């Protein structure tokens, strides 16, 4: 027989008139009624389709023990019947639940009143989430569905279905908290599948690496890995697939702008509910500044050691320098010395004075007390180039000078010579045999402040400096001349220039570049006297 469920009927007489049977409710309180409609016809249909015919007692047992929580309510919200699952969900006995207002069990009773008003208009309620208070005082999240049972134009009863979603809510809340932590993290947090395709990309990843989530999700993670390190990603994916965790792996990544940054990676496997590894979660921390601080600390320690050594050297060479100076003085007084030799002795005496001065100011551990003087730029450059004349001839390097006529500079003479000496020495070392060096100087003004001064340029057509090396040439102890270089020349020059308000820049092209290879060092030196006059 095919059965149709109907709401509780308080009047058995109507049940007798309509042929309904009344089955006692196991939940207590009100009975449950079922209708037998067209039993013979239903029996015939059962042979062809639909569920098997059930006795009233079978159907009642089915409803009482259904996993889904169910109850009937009167139009005013009074509970007329509830099954075992709903009672178990909230921890009540039937006598403590049936007969009470359903709003009494809601965290916000006004919500139930609002739902009843909607049901009274004939509206069905679907997937409405609310919290019910259990007997022990705890609150349970449930999904509430209800449909009205009208009688004529009036609401007669309400059939309600309740599903416990507390665990899902807790999981959702945990997921939301985790998502909030990921989004607010200062470290980049990225996930990818086992093919290396990005599946998530947080705000810190956008800030650190420059790509937005929309740009990266769906793209390979190798987008931010330098080409020469792509083999590292293959090894990382192999370890992840084996279930291994990678901690504090220091490497390099490339931002959207092309900048390379130092990073520390921690990578963990991601598993699905069945425990199968489906991807990896990666935490990326930008340690570029930390690396720079470590390098600066290391450099300062080396400078301190060099400073102690420099103080010792300056003290020890002072006596022999003084002796050589005296010998040169005596030689100049000798009337038998040819005039050409005397000129060489004058130059040697000048250079000895400069050596003495440099020894004292090595690495900035000596305060220069000398005063600026007017310098003939052309004469000073000629004096320095004369010292390197033999080296230039030996390597057959051509020298071209273009010095503005009458160009003068008010500055420390020793520091100007030291600047020219360092730039010319580097140009000679970088030039190939048969190459050429160009030295130019002209009056100029500072591009930002407009302060008067000169522009000095030393250019060579040597091998050029690659970009990754060019960024480091002004750092202390950095050198590509392993046998003879100390890595201090350009660092000292830059320090002297910055101290006086000057600047130094470098442009370079390597072999294969349009126009050929070579390096151009551009120096701006302010003229202190003219700057002071302009201020006055």
**Which word captures the global form?**
rod-shaped
CATH topology of the largest domain: Beta-Lactamase
How many individual β-strands? 20
Please name the CATH architecture of the largest domain: 2-Layer Sandwich
Query: Structural class of the helices, strands and pairings?
Result: alpha+beta
Distance separating the two termini:
114 Å
Low-confidence parts: 1-51, 363-367, 530-536
**Strand order within the widest beta sheet:** 5-4-8-7-6
Q: Note the main sheet.
A: 5 strands, antiparallel
From the alpha carbons, calculate the radius of gyration and give it in angstroms: 45 Å
Strand percentage lies at: 25-35%
Total number of domains: 4
Average pLDDT, all residues: 81
Key words describing this protein structure:
27% strand; 536 residues; alpha+beta; 4 domains; 18 helices; Beta-Lactamase
Describe the fold and architecture.
With 536 residues, the protein is an alpha+beta fold. It contains 18 helices and 20 strands. The chain has 4 domains: 3-169, PAS domain (Beta-Lactamase); 185-286, Beta-Lactamase (2-Layer Sandwich), CATH 3.30.450; 289-348, no CATH class; 370-535, Heat Shock Protein 90, CATH 3.30.565.10. The protein has helices at 12-18, 39-46, 56-64, 84-90, 94-97, 109-120, 166-184, 203-209, 213-216, 230-241, 288-333, 339-361, 377-387, 389-394, 413-430, 467-470, 489-499, 528-535, and strands spanning 3-6, 20-23, 32-36, 69-73, 79-82, 125-133, 139-151, 154-164, 188-193, 198-201, 246-254, 260-271, 277-286, 373-376, 398-403, 408-411, 436-445, 452-460, 503-509, 518-526. Strands 5-4-8-7-6 form a 5-stranded antiparallel sheet. The protein has a 5-stranded antiparallel sheet with strand order 10-9-13-12-11, with helices on both faces. A hairpin with a 6-residue loop joins strand 17 and strand 18 (452-460). Helix 11 (288-333) runs antiparallel to helix 12 and helix 15 runs antiparallel to helix 17 (489-499).
């Amino acid at each position: 027989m095919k059965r149709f469920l109907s709401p509780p009927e308080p009047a058995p007489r109507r049940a007798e008139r309509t042929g309904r049977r009344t089955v006692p409710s196991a939940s207590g309180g009100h009975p449950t009624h079922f209708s037998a409609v067209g039993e013979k016809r239903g029996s015939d249909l059962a042979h062809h389709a639909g569920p098997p015919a059930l006795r009233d007692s079978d159907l009642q047992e089915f409803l009482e023990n259904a996993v889904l929580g169910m109850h009937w309510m009167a139009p005013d919200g009074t509970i007329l019947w509830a099954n075992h699952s709903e009672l178990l969900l909230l921890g009540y006995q039937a006598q403590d639940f049936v007969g009470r207002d359903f709003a009494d069990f809601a965290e916000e009773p006004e919500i139930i009143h609002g739902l009843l008003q909607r049901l009274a208009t004939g509206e069905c309620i679907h997937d409405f989430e609310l919290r019910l208070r259990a007997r022990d005082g705890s609150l349970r999240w449930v999904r509430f569905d209800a449909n009205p049972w009208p009688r004529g134009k009036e609401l007669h009863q309400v059939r309600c279905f309740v599903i416990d979603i507390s665990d899902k809510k807790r999981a959702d809340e945990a997921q939301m908290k985790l998502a909030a932590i990921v989004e607010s993290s200062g470290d980049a947090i990225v996930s990818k599948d086992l093919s290396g395709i990005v599946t998530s990309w947080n705000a810190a990843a956008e800030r650190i690496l420059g790509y937005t989530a929309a740009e990266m999700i769906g793209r390979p993670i190798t987008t931010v890995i330098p080409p020469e390190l792509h083999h590292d990603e293959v090894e990382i994916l192999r370890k992840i697939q084996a279930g291994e965790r990678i901690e504090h792996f220091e490497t390099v990544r490339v931002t959207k702008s092309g900048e390379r940054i130092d990073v520390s990676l921690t990578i963990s496997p991601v598993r699905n509910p069945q425990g199968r590894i489906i991807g990896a979660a990666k935490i990326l921390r930008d340690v570029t500044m930390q690396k720079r601080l470590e390098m600066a600390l290391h450099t300062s320690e080396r400078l301190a050691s060099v400073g102690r050594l420099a103080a010792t050297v300056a003290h020890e060479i002072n006596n022999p320098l003084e002796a050589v100076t005296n010998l040169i003085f005596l030689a100049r007084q000798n009337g038998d010395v040819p005039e050409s030799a005397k000129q060489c002795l004058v130059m040697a005496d000048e250079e000895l004075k400069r050596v003495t001065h440099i020894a004292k100011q090595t690495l900035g551990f000596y305060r220069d007390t000398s005063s600026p003087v007017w310098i003939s730029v052309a004469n000073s450059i000629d004096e320095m180039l004369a010292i390197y004349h033999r080296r230039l001839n030996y390597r057959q390097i051509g020298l071209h000078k273009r010095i503005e006529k009458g160009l003068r500079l008010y500055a420390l003479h020793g520091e100007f010579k030291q600047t020219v000496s360092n730039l010319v020495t580097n140009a000679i070392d970088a030039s190939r045999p048969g190459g050429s060096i160009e030295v130019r100087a002209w009056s100029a003004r500072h591009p930002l402040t407009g302060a008067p001064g000169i522009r000095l340029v030393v250019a060579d057509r040597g091998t050029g400096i690659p970009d990754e090396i060019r960024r480091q040439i002004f750092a202390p102890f950095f050198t590509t001349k392993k046998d003879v270089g100390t890595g201090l020349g350009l660092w000292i020059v830059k320090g002297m220039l910055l101290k006086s308000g000057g600047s130094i820049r470098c442009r370079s092209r390597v072999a294969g570049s349009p126009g050929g290879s070579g390096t151009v060092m551009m120096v701006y030196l302010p003229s202190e006297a003219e700057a002071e006059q302009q201020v006055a």
